[in-house]
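Please fill in the sequence for the structure shown.

STRUCTURE ENCODING:
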């Protein structure tokens, strides 16, 4: 064998002479690389979607809620909580809500029994909530000053509830709140930072007082927009400003942190799947070593004849290493393609943007080649040490 080209040809002929064996060799690096590519790519796609959501929604939305360290029922904020919150210099906009309890919501009176066991949030709110949440209405309008001042029985429902009740945009409909009819005047779009609002009903504070509360409607939660970059300071200042040394206890939550925690759990899942991919590719490497060792025995006659014709041990070893490299290259490429397909399918089903780092493909192929070469060292060394007379006994 005079040239490297000839050696390469012999290696490929030896590799593809037994197609089933070659397929088994390819499975290890292919599955391992695909798992690693898919886990990293899907996590990056999720993070890309998260960044888009955060850029759209902002990181400066804070939720301030009333709480009680003594386990009191239905803790509330001070009646002037909004005014107190606006005294914080970094606060830009505030909206208050009161969460009402034990209210059965149904699309019409006859369906009340059906929805009696379905918890649908009902909130009394002011006129500023969509502005603070920075969420538009799908159709109709929000609760107006007239509704807030006169107690008109007007309601806005979340987009999820509208779909469940089969509301059409612009349709004039009513819903029953504990048997009291309310006119649906608008449908609020999806609220990414507060998913529970998608299936909620919003009415004015005045209506909440008249129909469902014995006393004045005191808020138990506020949503606050602060200056970008001052979220931590604003949250700390809100607790002091709203409490003012009173008996009420206030908890604050930066809403975007929930998305960041979800991203953190995605990264943990990514590490787990990468570890599984590495394990798969290592097990695949052991399979390569095993199958190629058996191949050395099966091809002992071929090795003996070539040694008798003058091929050196080095040439025999290089041939088997080239076969291992070919397994790594082909398995790596197939693994990358399979991983990309998994990212595309996963991102499409989840509604994410396809994201795959440019370094993933070459890194996956290099990893597959490295494992395959390491796995092929022992069979190559074993083949190189075979003597022509020994091959007659093996063959």
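FILLED IN BY: designer on duty
SEQUENCE:
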């Amino acid at each position: 064998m005079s040239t490297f080209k000839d050696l390469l040809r012999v290696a490929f002929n030896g590799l593809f002479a037994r197609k089933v064996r070659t397929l088994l060799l390819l499975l290890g690096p292919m599955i391992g690389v695909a798992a690693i590519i898919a886990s990293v790519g899907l996590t990056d796609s999720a993070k890309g979607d998260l960044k888009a959501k955060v850029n759209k929604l902002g990181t400066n939305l804070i939720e301030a809620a009333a709480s009680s360290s003594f386990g009191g029922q239905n803790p509330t904020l001070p009646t002037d909580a909004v005014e107190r919150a606006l005294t914080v210099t970094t606060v830009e906009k505030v909206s208050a809500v009161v969460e009402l309890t034990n209210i059965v919501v149904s699309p019409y009176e006859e369906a009340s029994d059906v929805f009696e066991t379905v918890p649908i949030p009902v909130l009394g709110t002011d006129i500023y909530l969509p502005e603070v949440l920075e969420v538009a209405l799908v159709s109709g309008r929000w609760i107006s000053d007239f509704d807030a001042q006169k107690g008109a029985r007007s309601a806005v429902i979340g987009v999820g509830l509208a779909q469940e009740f089969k509301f059409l945009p612009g349709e004039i409909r009513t819903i029953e709140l504990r048997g009291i009819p309310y006119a649906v005047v608008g449908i609020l779009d999806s609220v990414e930072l507060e998913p529970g609002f998608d299936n909620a009903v919003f009415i004015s504070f005045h209506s909440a007082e008249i129909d469902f509360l014995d006393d004045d409607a005191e808020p138990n939660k506020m949503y606050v927009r602060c200056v970008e970059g001052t979220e931590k300071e604003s949250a700390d200042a809100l607790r002091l400003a709203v409490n003012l040394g009173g008996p009420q206890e206030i908890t604050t939550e930066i809403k975007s942190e929930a998305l960041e925690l979800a991203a953190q759990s995605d990264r943990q899942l990514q590490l787990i799947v990468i570890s599984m991919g590495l394990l798969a590719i290592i097990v695949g490497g052991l399979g390569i070593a095993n199958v190629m060792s058996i191949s050395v025995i099966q091809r002992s006659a071929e090795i003996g004849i070539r040694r008798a014709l003058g091929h050196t041990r080095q040439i025999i070893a290089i041939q088997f290493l080239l076969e291992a490299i070919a397994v790594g290259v082909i398995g790596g490429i197939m693994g990358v393609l399979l991983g990309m397909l998994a990212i595309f399918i996963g991102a499409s089903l989840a509604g994410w943007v396809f994201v795959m780092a440019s370094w993933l493909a070459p890194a996956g192929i290099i990893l597959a080649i490295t494992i395959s070469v390491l796995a092929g060292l022992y069979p190559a060394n074993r083949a190189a040490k075979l003597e022509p007379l020994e091959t007659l006994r093996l063959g």
